[in-house]
TrEMBL record:
Gene3D superfamilies on file: Ribonuclease Z/Hydroxyacylglutathione hydrolase-like (3.60.15.10)
Pfam families from the UniProt entry: Lactamase_B
SMART domains: Lactamase_B
Identification of the protein by name: Glyoxylase, beta-lactamase superfamily II
Top-level lineage group: Bacteria
Amino acid sequence: MIDIQEVSNNVYMLKIPVPINVEAVNLYLFDGEIPTLLDTGTNTPEVIEAVHEGMKKVGIKRLEQVLVSHWHVDHSGAANTFAQEGAKVFIGSRDYQEWTSFVHGQAFSSLNQWATQEWGVPEMEIPGMLKIYKRLQYLTALPDQVTLIEPEQTVMAGDNLLRAIPTPGHTAGHLSFYNEKDSLLFSGDMLLPDEIPYPGIWEEEGHVMSGMPSYLESLNRIEALQTKMYLPGHGLPSENLIARCQEIREKLYHQKTKHRPAESVYLSASKGNQKIHPGVLFIQLHYIYGWEQLKSRVG
Ligand SMILES: [Zn+2]
């Protein structure tokens, strides 16, 4: 049985299990003038079948568009499969670069270099992380053609006019989609009810930086929209957007204040535990680097 629920007029949330360590991902189907899927799940048969089933239930015969909030495999993985069925894929230009780099493997070389040289990650931890990277690569596929969207651009989904709000942090080019008329924010992984997304790292003008400072700016940006409801990429839609933004901000500042830098980011992340799971280590490294960048910026 597929978990599908109408969350706004002709907009349906599908909760789809994905074969990675996250809660089910939320995909949104927009029926109407331009049948659209927002976020895709991983490129796995069960996910594709579930989307087809959802379309059937709603009465969508063919998807005209796929919109992607960010390039991570649980959100964009199946985009190419839907493109082959005739849908046009829309993704933010910055995240398309990151996606390409991930699929072609450069992302791992950069991470490897950064982790060993700047974070003090020992070589012996790298194969474990590489194994996870390779497994994730199998869950996504790059479409031959995409339509790039820029921040603030509008796009129709079903009968909804959506504005792409730049919400970098988790990824460099993460976009949230705002339906101003109905006061709805499709927040992707930027705003989640039950967790704080780990901050990405990326290069800007030759410098590697944590996504944490950008993430805090993104929180301010979406708070200022005065939106009623947010529809997240995981967890349940909620009406307390502003309270959730404040709660996250406080948590991050608290974590930052509590954090006592060790000799290296790696030692802080592993806490001396050499048996730390490579997936857990990966995420911890990103949080710690984020707190340290916040400390160095705002004292
Ligand atoms: Zn996600």
